[in-house]
Amino acid sequence: DLMVGNHDSAVRQAIVGAVKGKVPYVYSPVYEGGECSPNVFMLGETPQQQLKPTIPYFAKTKGVKNYYLIGNDYVWPRITNKLAKQYISAAGGNVVGEQYIPFGPANKFESAVTRIKSAKPDLVVITLVGGDNVNFNRTFAEFGLHKNITRVASLLEENTLMGIGAASSSNLYSSMAYFANIDSTENKAFVSSYKAKFGAKAAVLNTLAESNYAGIVFGSALVNKAGSTNASKLAATAEGFTVNTPTGSVTMRNRHTDKNMFLAECKGTQFSVAKVFNNVASGQTCT
Question: Taking all residues of the chain, what is their mean pLDDT, rounded to a whole number?
Answer without folding.
Answer: 94
